[in-house]
């Protein structure tokens, strides 16, 4: 999959077209991303300065939820990103977690307009990352609501979900790994084993511990079988308080969101490297064979020259292909003329009448022996 970007390029393009449009028009556009994210953009020709953006995204927040399904921390993060040109509509439209009212009249002109619209296009990423941030920043909290130790499934791509499991003094992120090609599974397995070896070294002692297992971890017992059916195993990261301090929190969140993309990019690059090495090896072998063939041809020419100088004779020169074919046709024609019988007109009628052997019938009967 592509790297999970903070800004939705498709949504950004639509909003820029609405902002730069010379004539107001009616717009009712639905946009889907990653199979689980939906945007609904609405614009009215009667009121072109006010547009509405509704967002539907997977919900993973814990704790107190508002009526629209988003936590107070998530709403706070959304308000910090959005400018004065954006107003949160409460309640949100049916089927969506968040509805924003965009006032293009308050959007500054020039290059600043693109900056503001880019910030608006990153609202979904803010919602998704803020939910993870809310869980990770409370990693040492002892006030865990009942039932929150169960795995929380995050689906921002239907084929690539991962789980967040809250445990005492740490949070575990589990990634089920799937590949279509068996060769990709082999490359990824070697990569995960190397990742565990490097992570256990003293140089990377501050990084989150990484473990890989071909079977699901015990924390995922009870989850749907289709989510646990993998061919690449399960990769787990244990995140503690030292990994979410200050600016590390944002880096940790985006590293988790882009882990699938990082693994698949590594597998793709490794496969391409292997193919290039095999191609170079094949070219070198072909070059060696070509050189040996040239050497053999050179030795044959030397033998012919040596024979001519020794016996003073000349090599027999074969006839040209056209002459050779003509001689073959003449020779074949002569053989056919010799082989075929001489045909006499009316001889077949004479043969049938006078040279036919008469048939005789025996008066004696025959008894079939058993």
Automatic annotation (TrEMBL):
GO biological process: actin filament polymerization; Arp2/3 complex-mediated actin nucleation
Domain of life assignment: Eukaryota
Keywords in alphabetical order: Actin-binding, Cell projection, Cytoplasm, Cytoskeleton
Entry keyword annotation includes Glycoprotein: no
GO CC term, one of those recorded: Arp2/3 protein complex
InterPro entries named in the record: ARPC2, ARPC2/4
Localization in the cell: Cell projection; Cytoplasm, Cytoskeleton
Statement: the UniProt record of this protein carries the keyword Nucleus: no
GO MF annotations, alphabetized: actin filament binding; structural constituent of cytoskeleton
Annotated function: Functions as actin-binding component of the Arp2/3 complex which is involved in regulation of actin polymerization and together with an activating nucleation-promoting factor (NPF) mediates the formation of branched actin networks. Seems to contact the mother actin filament. Arp2/3 complex plays a critical role in the control of cell morphogenesis via the modulation of cell polarity development.
Quaternary structure annotation from Swiss-Prot or TrEMBL: Component of the Arp2/3 complex.
The family this protein is said to belong to: Belongs to the ARPC2 family.
Protein name: Arp2/3 complex 34 kDa subunit
């Amino acid at each position: 999959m592509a790297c999970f970007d903070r800004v939705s390029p498709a949504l950004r393009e639509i909003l820029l077209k609405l902002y730069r449009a010379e004539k107001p028009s009616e717009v009712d556009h639905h946009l889907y991303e990653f199979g689980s994210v939906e945007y609904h953009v609405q614009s009215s020709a009667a009121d072109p300065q006010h547009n509405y953006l509704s967002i539907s995204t997977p919900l993973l927040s814990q704790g107190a939820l508002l009526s629209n399904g988003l936590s107070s921390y998530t709403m706070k993060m959304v308000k910090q990103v959005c400018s004065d040109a954006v107003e949160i509509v409460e309640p949100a439209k049916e089927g969506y977690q968040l509805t924003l009212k965009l006032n293009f009249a308050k959007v500054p002109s020039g290059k600043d307009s693109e900056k503001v619209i880019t910030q608006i296009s990153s609202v979904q990423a803010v919602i998704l990352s803020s939910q993870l941030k809310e869980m990770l920043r409370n990693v040492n909290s002892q006030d865990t609501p009942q039932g929150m130790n169960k795995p929380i499934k995050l689906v921002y791509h239907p084929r690539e979900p991962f789980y967040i499991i809250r445990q005492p003094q740490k949070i575990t992120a589990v990634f089920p790994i799937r590949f279509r090609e068996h060769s990709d599974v082999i490359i990824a397995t070697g990569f995960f084993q190397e990742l565990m070896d490097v992570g256990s070294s003293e140089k990377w002692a501050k990084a989150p511990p990484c473990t890989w297992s071909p079977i699901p971890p015990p924390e995922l017992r009870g989850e749907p079988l289709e989510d646990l059916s993998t061919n690449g195993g399960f990769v787990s990261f244990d995140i503690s308080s030292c990994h979410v301090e200050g600016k590390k929190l944002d880096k940790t969140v985006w590293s988790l969101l882009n882990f699938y993309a990082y693994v698949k990019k590594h597998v793709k690059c490794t496969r391409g490297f292997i193919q290039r090495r095999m191609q170079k090896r094949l070219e070198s072998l072909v070059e060696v064979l070509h050189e040996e063939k040239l050497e053999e041809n050179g030795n044959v020419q030397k033998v012919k020259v040596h024979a001519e100088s020794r016996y003073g004779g000349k090599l027999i020169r074969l006839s040209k292909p056209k002459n050779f074919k003509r001689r073959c046709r003449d020779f074949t024609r002569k053989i056919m003329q010799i082989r075929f019988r001489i045909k006499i007109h009316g001889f077949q009628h004479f043969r049938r009448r006078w040279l036919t052997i008469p048939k005789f019938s025996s008066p004696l009967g025959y008894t079939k022996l058993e």
